[in-house]
Amino acid sequence: MPDNILTVSDLSVVKGRRMILENISFEIKSGETLAVIGPNGAGKTTLFRAVLGLMPYTGKVVWKKGVKIGYVPQKLFIDADFPLTTLEFLRLKDKNRDKIKDAMEAVGFAPDKSLLNNRLSDLSGGELQRIVIAWSLLGNPQVLLFDEPTAGVDVVGEGTIYSMLEKLRIKKNLTILLISHELDILRKYVTQVLCLNKEMVCFGLPKDMDKNVMNKLFGEEVHYYEHQHKF
Question: Is 230 within the bounds of a domain?
Fold first, then answer.
């Protein structure tokens, strides 16, 4: 459809003789948030790599013409001796101080926050994740892909990250694709859910992801629970 920002049709990925993904089809419109969920080894990261053109696949992947895409990996490992400050790291992407300031404010850092002068290795997991998101925003993308955006972040930080992503989506009219194991976020922050376990188990609205669907996806009884977030 013309308003789709991404259309995937019959996508399959084979490594050696092993089928990693088989006949995956879905679409996402501009401004939506799609959550890809499934057990470990389901092919979620492989799907992201395929739609980004980073690995061979069969089938069809069609991005809206001219779309700019940002990607935030699951976790950025920073050695304790890594010498760069936050500012030096962001300046590798864009040297414009005003754009860096805007990106920092977009991910929730106050203008007078001294983090720009801190070494990356001194940041908390939540702070580092937001800096990596700020890095991705410097390219002015229309689409952001997140591979488990709360990996290595504590429970309170998880709520902060997801809430921040929702605010970014609205403010910047972003389309967001994210991989997550946090089942309780589905009804709060996403518009579509893709259930994946090497093949497509389901694709639809969060309200349709009931207990039976989750049991089928994970192969066991799944319990929803609410995180109590305080901001």
Answer: no
* pLDDT value of residue 126: 79
- Which positions ≥6 away from 100 have C-beta within 8 Å? 87, 90, 91, 94, 116, 134, 138
CA distances (Å), origin 41, targets 45, 53, 180, 198: 9, 20, 13, 8
Query: Which domain CATH number covers 210?
Result: 3.40.50.300
Q: How far apart are CA 74 and CA 178, in angstroms?
A: 10
Number of domains observed in the structure of the chain: 1
User: E-strand spans in the chain?
Assistant: 4-15, 18-29, 33-37, 58-63, 69-72, 143-147, 175-179, 192-197, 199-204
**Does some domain include residue 14?**
yes
Q: DSSP states of 154-184 as a string? A: -HHHHHHHHHHHHHHHHHHT-EEEEE---GG
* Structural domain of 103: 4-218
CB 47 within 8 A of CB 11: yes
Q: Which two tokens stand for residue 38?
A: 């499934």
Identify the CA nearest to 35 among candidates 153, 202, 164.
202
Residue 82's pLDDT is 82
- Tens of pLDDT, residues 53-99: 999 999 999 999 999 999 887 666 777 788 899 999 999 999 998 99
Contacts of 180 (CB under 8 A, 6+ apart): 35, 36, 37, 148, 149, 150
> Is residue 223 in a domain?
no
